[in-house]
């Protein structure tokens, strides 16, 4: 049943369900059921939509909403609400997330030996990372369910994002972070937004295990990306990217991999776009991990074997220092379905790629730079061809980890195995007297 109510609303009876992704289970649950994983087999859950759309009308509507004054229309996530498992008049928790830029990056392209490279900068979200696109939907769901306490484990960005959205929703929020392993900027955000920050002796994986046990308690709502409502918000970035490219998808889409929610979400977004005919193929999704924290890349080499966690993940890209990614099955589905790959890059490659992204006037945090490092490697190996279109997803803002940046540029950045990182593109400050002549001598 379709009924066009006004120019910016597309009303229809849409049915959403939650379903286990495991091929021999596929148990279905109601959308209002408060679950993180399948109660029967423990498998991950997908949210599925059951209807068909007039795609021409949809594209026009989404475009029109960009110039509307309504909060839902202005959000780059809620603009695509026909694909989100909420009623049209549900009150939402939004900070104006999404609508992030897609940049041309000529210097990074040249560094990768490509004629062109585009960077989708998810660091331009309200709290400086892609997490906001999923947090708006997860916290909206938390409020809908009447949750009072929302929680997550985090390497820093999820924490900052949840803290902000919980503050907007007036919910109590607690975050578990590995003590001493989160950048000051991310910690500062969580503190300022009023979250209860609990520092754990152990790594991210220990935080994740503990918080999963804790959230078996019904008064606690977990919003890590194991929660399918997080993935729903994050998948809209695929819609936004396809729209920015006038519905022609790139040959390759490259992103960092940590807990593997982001790659799962992009996979789901592009699959849904293909199903309704808004695109005619999916981009090959490639996930890049840091060499010292690469359980998914190792699994991809022997995909019929069991997934083996990395017990002691090590990387300076602290956002992706993760050894037991909770969403690996969904991410693997995205990589396999699209014909992509999973690769690793070294600490030196990440550091140099990051500096190169900076030279394009764009910048990002270390984890995001795995993408350009990975693309360079794939071009060298002939996996990415010169005439193919490539988009890299930058997941976090440059100001998320300034300590790393300063150390790279002054030559004191040291990798986890005490290996010194060379400042290949370093740019150190120069101390100079406050005199016109001294400064002119340096500059002219
Ligand atoms: N890039 C950044 C900047 C991140 O913060 C993360 C994850 C990733 C990439 C990896 O994305 O987990 O979806 O594969 N950060 C999480 C956090 C783990 O707690 O902030 P993923």
Model description:
This protein is an alpha/beta fold. Helix content is 37%, strand content 16%. The protein has a six-stranded mixed sheet, with helices on both faces. The chain has a four-stranded parallel sheet with strand order 10-9-8-11, with helices on both faces. A three-stranded antiparallel sheet has the order 4-3-5, with helices on one face. Strand 9, helix 6 and strand 10 form a beta-alpha-beta unit. The longest helix has 17 residues. The chain is globular and about 70 Å long. The N terminus is likely disordered. Ligand F0G binds next to helix 5, helix 9 and helix 13. The site of ligand F0G has 22 residues, from helix 5, helix 9 and helix 13.
Question: What descriptive keywords fit this protein?
Answer:
444 residues; alpha/beta; four-stranded parallel β-sheet; globular; binds ligand F0G
Brief account:
The chain has 444 residues and is of the alpha/beta class. The chain has 15 helices and 15 strands.
Helix content: 25-40%
Named once each, the bound ligands are: ligand F0G
Strand order of the largest sheet: 6-7-15-12-13-14
Instruction: Return the string of H and E elements.
Output: EEEEEHHEHEHEHEHEHEHEHEHHEHHEHH
Shape field = globular
Judged by helices, strands and strand pairing, the structural class is alpha/beta
Number of strands: 15
- Which ranges are low-confidence, i.e. pLDDT below 50, for 5 or more consecutive residues? 1-7
Rounded to the nearest angstrom, the distance between the terminal CA atoms is: 71 Å
Largest sheet, strands/sense/barrel: 6 strands, mixed
How much of the sequence lies in strands comes to 15-25%
Mean pLDDT: 95
Please report the number of helical segments.
15
Structural Rg: 22 Å
């Amino acid at each position: 049943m379709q009924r066009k109510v006004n120019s910016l609303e597309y009303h229809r009876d849409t049915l959403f369900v939650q379903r286990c992704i495991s091929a021999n289970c596929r148990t279905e649950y109601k959308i209002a059921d408060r679950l993180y994983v399948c109660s029967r087999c423990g498998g991950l859950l997908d949210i599925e939509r059951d209807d068909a759309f007039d795609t021409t009308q949809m594209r026009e509507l989404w475009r029109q909403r960009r110039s509307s004054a309504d909060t839902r229309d202005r959000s780059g996530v809620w603009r695509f609400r026909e694909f989100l498992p909420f009623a049209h008049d549900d009150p939402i928790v939004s900070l104006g997330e999404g609508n992030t830029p897609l940049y041309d990056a000529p210097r990074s392209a040249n560094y990768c030996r490509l004629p062109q490279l585009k960077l989708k900068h998810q660091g331009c979200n309200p709290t400086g990372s892609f997490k906001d696109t999923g947090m708006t939907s997860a916290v909206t769901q938390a409020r809908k369910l009447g949750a009072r306490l929302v929680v997550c484990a985090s390497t820093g960005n999820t924490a900052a994002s949840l803290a902000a959205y919980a503050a907007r929703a007036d919910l109590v929020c607690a975050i578990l972070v590995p003590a001493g392993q989160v950048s000051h900027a991310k910690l500062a955000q969580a503190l300022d937004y009023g979250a209860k920050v609990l520092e754990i002796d152990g790594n991210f994986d220990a935080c994740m295990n503990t918080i999963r046990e804790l959230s078996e308690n019904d008064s606690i709502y977990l919003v890590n990306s194991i929660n399918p409502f997080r993935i729903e918000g994050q998948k809209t970035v695929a819609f936004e990217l396809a729209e920015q490219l006038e519905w022609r998808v790139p040959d390759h889409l490259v992103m960092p991999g940590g807990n593997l929610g982001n790659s799962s979400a992009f996979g789901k977004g592009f699959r849904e776009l293909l199903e309704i005919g808004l695109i005619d193929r999916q981009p090959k999704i490639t996930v890049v991990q840091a060499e010292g924290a690469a359980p998914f890349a190792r699994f991809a080499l022997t995909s019929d074997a069991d997934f083996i966690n990395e017990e002691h993940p090590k990387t300076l890209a602290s956002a992706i220092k993760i050894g037991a990614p909770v969403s690996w099955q969904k991410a693997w589905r995205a990589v396999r379905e699209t014909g992509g790959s999973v690769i690793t890059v070294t600490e030196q490659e990440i550091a140099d790629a990051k500096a190169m992204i900076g030279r394009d006037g764009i910048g990002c945090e270390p984890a995001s730079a795995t993408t350009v490092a990975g693309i360079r490697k794939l071009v060298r190996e002939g996996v990415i061809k010169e005439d193919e279109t490539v988009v890299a997803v930058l997941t976090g803002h440059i100001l998320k980890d300034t300590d790393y940046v300063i150390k790279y540029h002054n030559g004191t950045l040291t990798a986890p195995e005490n290996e010194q990182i060379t400042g290949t593109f370093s740019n150190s400050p120069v101390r100079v007297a406050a005199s016109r002549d001294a400064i002119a001598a340096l500059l002219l």
